[in-house]
Design a protein that fits this description.
CATH architecture of the largest domain: 2-Layer Sandwich
Oligomer: single chain
Strand order of the largest sheet: 1-3-2
CATH topology of the largest domain: Zincin-like
Distance between the termini: 39 Å
Number of domains: 2
Order of helices and strands: HHEEEHHHEEHEH
Largest sheet: 3 strands, mixed
Shape: elongated
Number of strands: 6
CATH class of the largest domain: Alpha Beta
Structural class: alpha+beta
Bound molecules: zinc ion
């Protein structure tokens, strides 16, 4: 049995820090995004709510056209909580969704695409068109890049760690002890299989 490697220990330690409540300020970020969009002459629609979605695991953002002509935007809590996600990366998702509120911009083609490209050029973002499963103005999509590929759960103490790529640990995880409780009893789930094809 191998003793858990340093990298894993670091991973567990940083996970515990991240899981404390130091969320990015969604309202503040949204205000900045709107300013940046408006400064380039684009006009977002009326946004009635910007909500944090704590249940979405594979969807980063959502823009919903409501029957009264306003829009509701939801941003995944994971983007806001996870320190690996930069403010700019979070703003890319917010801007992506805000652009959908502009007239004629519900799809990722035409005006939306032109606007996204203009914003990318002006501010250096990388706002991408994604394959959406949109229906009636509700869309769900996944941003690649920041999604972890694997999720390991210690069956003994319950801690969850994520890995973004294949490594010694992801291949030989049965031989590694949990840095927190010492057990060698990981369950492995591949997140990629169920969520990545959409991009
Ligand atoms: Zn979209
Ligand atoms: Zn454990």
């Amino acid at each position: 049995m191998l003793i858990s490697d340093v990298a894993l220990e670091e991973c567990v330690a940083s996970f515990e820090i991240r899981s404390r409540d130091n969320m990015k300020d969604l309202q503040n970020l949204t205000d900045e995004c709107i300013k940046e969009i408006v400064a380039l002459g684009m006009k977002p629609g009326k946004i009635s709510d910007v909500l944090i979605n704590s249940r979405a695991k594979t969807r980063w953002g959502q823009c919903k056209a409501k029957s009264d002509g306003t829009f509701e935007i939801q941003i995944s809590e994971r983007l806001l909580k996870d320190d690996r996600v930069s403010d700019d990366s979070c703003k890319e998702t917010i801007i992506h969704e805000i652009l959908h509120t502009c007239e004629g911009c519900m799809k990722h083609t035409g005006k939306w695409k032109i606007f996204a490209e203009r914003i990318n050029a002006a501010y250096g973002y990388n706002i991408k068109r994604t394959t959406s499963s949109s229906e009636k103005g509700i869309e769900e999509h996944i941003s690649s890049g920041i999604m972890p590929k694997y999720m390991f759960t210690c069956r003994n103490c319950g801690i969850v760690i994520y890995r973004k790529r294949e490594s010694k640990f992801t291949r030989n995880y049965r031989r590694y002890c949990c840095a927190r409780c010492g057990a060698a009893d990981w369950s492995r789930r591949s997140i990629a299989e169920c969520s990545h094809k959409d991009q």
